[in-house]
Design goal:
- The structure is a single chain.
- This protein has one helix spanning about 1-20, and strands at about 35-45, 50-55, 60-70, 80-85, 90-95, 105-110, 125, 130-140, 150, 155-160, 170-175, 180-185, 190-195, 215, 220-230, 235-245, 250-260.
- With about 280 residues, it is mostly beta strands.
- The strands form 5 sheets. It has a 5-stranded antiparallel β-sheet with strand order 8-17-16-15-13, with no helix packed on it.
- The longest helix is centred in the first third of the chain and has 18 residues, at about 1-20.
- The protein is elongated.
């Protein structure tokens, strides 16, 4: 009797399973590219270089670069225009179509082989500026080299240290046995920013910390920051001393410089702003 009851129950369960109309459906969503990260820029002279981390996906085909003008809202993706694309094998781009003193915003997106695009990356801001290298200024106490003892950074010209257009000049002190770098006017400021292994090691002029004096000791390999009042506006510059010659009768210093044309803009190399753009897909035009 027990065996019959068990058999009847098993038969009923089998009928229910056979008549069950449920189905399992598997849905595969397309895998869109990951948003690129690590976007940074290097400020140059008539040049802005962009760099980012490669997206770690097998089917990435290219990266699209977008830009927006300095007058626009960089947090609104609608303000960005397509500029160029680079193959997925590269993670950098150089923009030569820029004007010194003008500000630009950049963001990038990754595209796969199916043409699917990622969200726009975080943006970077950059303002290219002029620069110069191997400028040599002589000690002002050497009368035979007096015409090349001072330098006008704005016009990129050598001139006597006592010219009203002079920005900086070096003075060798026999008392202390070293050079001092001096700013020409009372509304100019200077500070020793310390040792720098490379010209691009320092990207921003500091907002404060300026010397109470008009001069600082010159040390080879040090970076010096300048705050110059040009045309009733504050302009920032950096000077990297690459050589100091203290030989009597032929004393000079050699340096590289960068000058920011945009007033009150302390950017001299790298500009990065970690603000997420509006989450919208972008289209490659």
């Amino acid at each position: 009797m027990k065996r019959l009851i068990i058999t009847t129950i098993l038969l009923a369960m089998l009928i229910l399973l056979v008549n069950c109309d449920e189905k399992t459906v598997y849905v595969t969503e397309p895998i869109t590219p990951v948003t690129p990260t690590g976007l940074t820029s290097i400020t140059g002279d008539g040049l802005i270089q962009l760099m980012w981390y490669p997206v770690d996906m097998d089917n990435i085909d290219e990266y699209a670069i977008y830009w927006a003008s300095g007058e626009s809202d960089p947090t609104d993706s609608d303000n960005y225009q397509y500029m160029a694309s680079v193959d997925a094998a590269y993670s950098s781009y150089s923009d030569y179509d820029v004007e010194n003193g003008s500000t630009y915003y950049y963001a990038i997106a990754a595209f796969n082989t199916d043409g699917d695009g990622s969200y726009l990356s975080n943006y970077v801001m950059d303002t290219p500026r002029p620069e110069g290298h191997n400028v040599r200024l002589y000690d002002i106490n050497q009368s035979e080299t007096i015409d090349s003892s001072g330098y006008d950074i704005y016009y990129q010209e050598y001139l006597p240290y006592d010219s009203s257009y002079c920005d900086i000049y070096p003075v060798y002190s026999t008392t202390y046995g070293c050079f001092f770098l001096t700013v020409r006017h009372n509304d100019y400021f200077i500070q020793d920013y310390g040792y720098a292994a490379d010209f691009d090691d320092v990207g921003y002029a500091p907002p404060d910390g300026w010397s109470a004096f008009s001069d600082v000791e010159v040390i080879e390999g040090h970076m010096y920051m300048l705050k110059l009042n040009h045309f009733d506006e504050d302009h920032y510059a950096k000077v990297w001393v690459t050589d100091v010659n203290e030989t009597s009768g032929n004393r000079y210093i050699t340096f590289s410089w960068a000058y920011q044309i945009a007033a009150d803009n302390r950017e001299l190399k790298i500009g990065d702003r970690p603000i997420k753009l509006k989450s919208e897909s972008v289209e490659l035009n």
